[in-house]
Amino acid sequence: MAIIRKLGAATLRYLRITGLMGLFLAKSFLYAVIPPLKFSRLLKQIRFIGFQSTLVIILTGGFSGMVLGFQGYYSLSRFGSEAFLGPMVGLALIKELGPVISALMVTGRAGSAITAEIGIMRISEQIDALELMGLNPYRYLIVTNLLAAMISVPLLTAIFDVVGIAGGYLVGGKLLGVGAGTYFGEMASYVKMDDVLEGVYKSISFGILIAWVSCFKGYYTTELSGFGAEGVSKATTQAVVLCSVLILVWDYFMTSILYR
Amino acid sequence: MIRIEDLHKSFDGNAVLKGVSLGIKKGEVAALIGGSGSGKSVLLKHVAGLMKPDRGRVFVDGNDMTSLSGKKLTELRTRLGFLFQAGALFDSMTVFENVAFPLKEKTKLDSEVLRQRVSRELEHVGLSGSEQKYPSQISGGMIKRAALARALITEPEIMLFDEPTTGLDPVIGLSILRLIDASHKRISFTGIIVTHEIPRVFDIVDRVALLLEGKVYFYGTPEEILSSRDGVVHEFLHAKTARASNDEKA
After folding, report:
1. What is the maximum span of chain B, computed from C-alpha positions, in angstroms?
2. Are A168 and A178 in contact (CB under 8 A)?
3. Taking a C-beta distance cutoff of 8 angstroms, is the pair B204, B181 a contact?
4. ipTM for this prediction
5. Bridge partners of B212?
6. What is the pTM of this model?
7. Is A18 exposed, middle or buried (0-12, 13-18, 19+ CB in 10 A)?
8. CB contact under 8 A, B88 and A125
């Protein structure tokens, strides 16, 4: 009986959190479309989430492309199809690896910081102070992060893709001898606009996901993760883990929807 | 101006407020005293509309804070000032930016006028020269002063103080109480001060409410509470006064 009671309590708790998350996202979008927009805060967050993540995106993009160059070349050479290295690298990066790895990198670098910042603001009553000044914390903290992530993640993904394709060429072309004409020419033939758009749709949705989970975990730190520094630490870890898992799960659903 | 009617609040089954009723007239300042964990800060947050009660009502200038939401609640809050226990200054902003923040966000004041208003408010609380410092670079007393300046810069009609002297040494604590008194004389707000600063707070308030076991046990003027023959009131005041005098000696 006790087990059933515990199971019921846990189910109710998770249902409540899921409902709370749904309402949180709905409210965030609502305040995003109702003016005024905190434009200077939005620019600050684009700088933080987007511009300041550029280096890590260039590094991961470059090395991912280089690995793909190696793996792709050796796999394709077994079938005598080295000429298709360009389309393989391009399609893998644009449709899948670019959006997913960029989102995971942004989660680790910016998502965790967003949760920690909002969590600290929550435990030190700074969010209450905002409310008491007659300011809407959603408008000030959540909407700006949501829009900044929606703008930044696709742009970072584009950088990741370009650097990755260049990395693939560096290995496949300069090191292993695939010609530039073959590499880029075949890529241009096989990579279509729909493939590019698939990557763009995915990266926008990942941006929403990162901002949603990170802000939610920070905003509800005291209610869901605990008090003080320990609460913030827990909330940050939970945000990164949940974001990373949801990115991969959502990627599967997006891929299956976009393939139809 | 502030009327609390039969307020009840529980957390995880633990009743903190068990039917609090209280009334504060316009321009009056009331001290809310009581033991630790007696629900003083919880009561204050209900007045500010930061918490919703399980039962009961809180009226601020005739508006029921327990049922207000959205634009109406926001509008009413612009008439409120709140001094948080730990200041709640925005730690990524300087003292100047913190104090300027409410005006910058809620008004369209010219930057020069804004600068003058902030400088004047910082001068009132004795923080001239600390404008460019961050909250982590100043002392606890200075944080409270900066938070007071931020709360007062909009000249609120109602000021709520959550333990304004907690964590400060007696001298700094006294200076904060004097600042509150001076600002009351300047702005004439209606106020509630949650405090353990007994009996010093009695010099600056019009009324005292003693909260015991989730209810208002005594409500009257400082003179009435000091001359009360009620055993519980007498024991509480005696214990607090003895502690305060020990703190001062230390």
Report:
1. 57
2. no
3. yes
4. 0.85
5. B215
6. 0.87
7. exposed
8. yes
Residue B49 DSSP SS3: coil
Instruction: Please check whether residue A77 is in contact with residue A179, taking contact to mean a CB–CB distance below 8 angstroms.
Output: no
Task: Write out the CATH class of domain B2-79+157-249.
Answer: alpha beta
Environment class of B170 (CB within 10 Å of its CB; exposed 0-12, middle 13-18, buried 19+)? middle
- For chain B, residues with pLDDT lower than 50 are none
Tokens coding A179: 């010609």
- Please state the domain extents for chain B: 2-79+157-249, 89-155
User: How many domains does the structure of chain A reveal?
Assistant: 1
Scanning B92-111 for CB atoms below 8 A from A yields 101-102, 105-106
Write out pLDDT tens, residues A64-79: 999 999 999 999 999 9
HSE-CB of B89 using CA atoms within 13 angstroms = 29
Report whether B7 contacts B53 (CB < 8 A). Answer: yes
- What domain range includes position A83? 2-258
**Burial grade of A239 (CB within 10 A; 0-12, 13-18, 19 or more):** buried
Residue A114's H or E segment, with its range, is helix A112-123
- Chosen for mutation from B104, B105, B160 (greatest number of chain A CBs closer than 10 Å) is B105
Chain A residues lying within 8 Å of B163, measured CB to CB: none
Mutation site for A-interface testing, chosen from B11, B72, B83, B91 by largest number of A Cβ within 10 Å: B91
Q: Which residue has the tokens 């990115």?
A: A247
B88 and A134 within 8 Å at the Cβ level: the answer is no
Rounded to whole angstroms, the Cα distance separating A208 from B170 reads: 50
The chain B residue lying nearest A120, using CA atoms, is: B91
> What residue spans of chain B are helical by DSSP H?
40-47, 70-77, 95-106, 111-124, 140-152, 170-187, 222-226, 231-249
